[in-house]
Amino acid sequence: MTRVVHYINQFFAGQGGEDAASSPPQRQDGAVGPGRRLGQLLGPDFEVVATVHCGDDDASGRPEAIEEVLALVRQCDPDLLVIGPAFTSGRYGLACARLAGAAASAGVPVVAAMHPDNPGVEEAGTAPVVASGQVAREMGPSLERLAAAARVVAEGRPLTKADGLIAGARRLVGLVDEPAAVRAVDLVLARLAGDRQATEVPLPRFDQVTPAAPVDDVTQATVALVTEGGLVPDDNPDRLESARATRWLRYPLEGVEALGSGDYRSVHGGFSTVWANEDPHRILPLDVAQDLEAEGAIGALHGAYLVTTGNGTSVGNARRFGTEWAADLRRSGARAAILTAT
After folding, report:
1. Which of 16, 50, 149, 314 is the most exposed place for a label (fewest CB within 10 A)?
2. How far apart are CA 175 and CA 193, in angstroms?
3. Are 81 and 108 in contact (CB under 8 A)?
């Protein structure tokens, strides 16, 4: 019988939502929440002996939390640690990835699941991560893939793309048919034949963005306020998404003296919005910007603010938003922007 420990966050463990995001690492005997279905999918040769869970804020924000979670896992003497799925949830994904990396370094067989766009993917190190769906309503097929991958790991076999592997380059020790010199020549010949992707060690690709030059004289510049904090008029008239945003919006600031509680609210689904809704200036500092304009510290305040929701947003959409924001602000004469982020 293969002993499995399952790691999930406070939400899937039934402990609560944002109100429980700071809860410390805890362990429960047996399967909890999605772990029950995971156990069924793994089959009769596997047993989910315990579930370890932790609040997203605690697990992703407190350096000692991952070691505490791993200690709880190791107390169960598992044959396999299964983590997630985390979908596109940022804090949950980071916690899952860091736990997977720590477990792999400690010699604990492990597999995690999250969406390829989850920022946690890059944090997993050499630990295997398989693709899940984007959102929790895709839990069923995501657990099916995770369970299949877990069986492969339990057998001591490496995961492949066919298993849904999405983690970065992993260097595995193994036997090959040809010596290094022959393989190197084969790679050179493949490159000469036009195959630019031929490699034994695929490297991660990172975007590089050259920062804009400083504004020469900000006292003469029009400055814009932009945010990914999901701040919209209270009725959310344009239905900005709370997560996985596909668009951004523009709302006027001309004639707006203050962002009153009850007039504006944050629809961001990735953090507790209580304090933001109590005083929307905590997300969009219109009050301070107006003071700076009155003092002459900035030339003028742009007449509108740009907003989206930076919660599980795909890299492709985020890149598009940035490009479109820059073009929009340039057309309207803004020379600088203050971006507030959550």
Report:
1. 16
2. 27
3. yes
Query: CATH assignment of 2-163?
Result: 3.40.50.2300
Average pLDDT of every residue of the chain: 92
pLDDT tens-digit readout, 269-278: 988 899 999 9
pLDDT in tens, 140-174: 999 999 999 999 999 999 999 899 998 554 555 67
Strands (E) in the chain, as ranges, are 2-9, 26-29, 46-54, 80-83, 110-114, 129-131, 222-227, 231-233, 249-252, 264-266, 300-307, 336-340
What is the distance between the alpha carbons of residues 127 and 241, in angstroms, rounded to a whole number?
32
Distance CA 128, CA 233 (A): 43
Q: In this prediction, what percent of the chain has a pLDDT beyond 90?
A: 76
Helix axes 139-154, 34-42, angle to 10 degrees: 50
CA dihedral of residues 266, 268, 274, 280 (deg, nearest 10): -30
